[in-house]
Amino acid sequence: MKSVAGAANYLDMDTKELFRLYSDNKDIDIRNILIERHLYLARILAKKYINKGVDYEDIYQVASLALIYAIDRYDISKGFEFSSFATPTIIGEIKKYFRDKVWTMRVPRRIQELSKKISNAKIAIEQEKKRHPSVKDIAEYIGCREEDVLEAMEASYSYQPVSLDASSGDDSEDDLTLSDRVGVEEKDFGNIEQKDFLNRFMQTLNELEVKILEDRFFHNKTQSVIATELNISQMTVSRLEKKVVEKLRKEYEKI
Question: What is the mean pLDDT of the chain?
Fold first, then answer.
């Protein structure tokens, strides 16, 4: 058992040296000190999400757990600062928490009710027509505008996190997961950990955005082809693609 005096000696050590030691021995005392020294990150990032229908303490708890996860995975030999590594991890976990927990708090009741009708309509139309229904099919079945269906579908997608361990959903025999597909190295990402960065970024996207990102940049499909497959307009695909690219740019600038 480590002596109290031995553990106390770590308190005077430089943070980078502590990370080097922790990388070698995974000492719990060192980890506790690193957590204490970086809890300010969890506090700062959690405060960005206050007044959004969730208690600050709940958000702070999520951020703190994400901080611990980042400490365990941080590799100081990569050469970048811990704060740059931890920030996307913490933000990603907070956003995932909101997507998982806050649907009823954030989405208008009208959209919630319409989403339920859309789900029922999809089942009924698929059983009747033996095919996946288009937006037009759903709108006619429910008796509303196509724009309303699209609005409800986008809202629903926004609060359904996509598992990176799930199948990518294409027809190929390799059955790669999203994590596998985004794990390829890209020269534009410089000295960051490419796979970790892309994994965290994909977790901030909704199902529709992931679909468009994969089809455009991994499958090299045109916007018109994607629009046809999704039964939406090419303008909508273009708008969502720009939104994803802008998200990627902002996340990359945080590194």
Answer: 76
